[in-house]
Every structure is written in C-alpha cells, then in structure tokens.
Amino acid sequence: MNPKYFIFDMDGVLVDSEPMHCQIIHEVFQQLEIPFPKSYIEETLTGMSAIPMWEKIKHDANRSEQAEELLQFHRSYFYNRFEEIEVIEVQGVKNVIQKLKNRGFSLALASSSSRKLIDYFTEKINISHFFDVIISGDDVKFSKPFPEIFLKVAQWYQAEPENFWVLEDSKNGVQAAKSAGMNCIGFKNPNSGNQDLSKSDLLIHSMNDITDDFIENLIRNNGKF
Question: Does the UniProt entry include the keyword Aminoacyl-tRNA synthetase (predicted)?
C-alpha cells in the first residue's frame, strides 16, 4: 500500500478566515482608492500569496506603486487590526484531523498566508502540533495556482506527489494541487465565495462528509471511486 499523506490548506479549510481577509482587503482598497468590489477579491485573489496578489492588483488597477509598497500598506493596516480578529475554526475540522491521524496519515499544512499569520491562527485553535511540516507563502517564489508549495511538501517527505491528498477551498488551490500531480478534495465552503472547484477529484460541502468510510475508500481505492 502506498504511503498516506494529507495536506491541509489553512484559510477556509482549517479556519473560517476568508470573510475576514476579504473585508480587510476591501478596506485597504477603499484606503487606496482602488475601485474593485468584493466579488473581485473572492473570485480572483482567494488562495494567492501576498506579493503575487498585489502584483495582480497593481496590474489590474494600473497603479504606479511597486507591489512591495502596496503589500506593506496592507500588512500595516492588517496588523493594526490583529487583536480584533476572531479566529474561528471550520466546524468539524479537528475531528477530521484526528480521524486521519488514527488511520495513519501523515499531515502537513500548506498555506499562501505568511508564517506569522499561520502561527497565530494555528496556535489560537490549538492544531499546530498535528502537522509534520508547515509551508507558508513566505517559503515559495511562485504562489498558488502554481504547484510549488505542494511540491515542497512532497520534497520534505521525499514522497511521490501521487501519494498525497490535498484539501482545498479555492480555485487557485485546487489548480495548484492538480498541477503538482496530487489528488484533491474540494471543500465548498460558503464563506470562501463562489469558487470553481470543478477540477477537484472529490467535492465535499461539510467536514462531516469526511466520514470513516470516506477515509477508508481513500485508502482502499487509492483515491479512485
């Protein structure tokens, strides 16, 4: 039997933080007089790490500043609001983590967020100890939808990508997982906007969908239903 590896995204999968991120970015747009609606953020930017995101915004909004300048403004604004942020775990996700652990899966976290934010969120909901390795947006050159972040996880384990399952809630994340040659479960989180998850191998609407039988089928059929 092939080794069993499972990679979690963070925002929208472990923590229900996408509405918060969307709101903060929208407020930054207002501060900078960037006339884009929240739908642009939800449908275009979800799943991207910081610099590529601001490079895209800079291009789309025809801004003269460097992406690094725009990002610095965003981070300063965000960290000023840091202590106000309520960190809410996705309902049922800790149960899923424990079930996978019980069935012998090795668990990793791969998120486009900064290491500082990942550490803050995972410590707040007390899950950081479950993961063998955490790869952040700070650790990669090319953000999702590029596969680099997932390939770094496979490299860390010295395992073939085909032995991994990834749980993602965004179009960019699903595309990155599939481009890496991994199996992907799309999580239709209503708080993550209207994401196109059609390229995922399986689709769930709740963490409760990942039952013991669901996990057993992942193992028995090597992901082929």
Answer: no
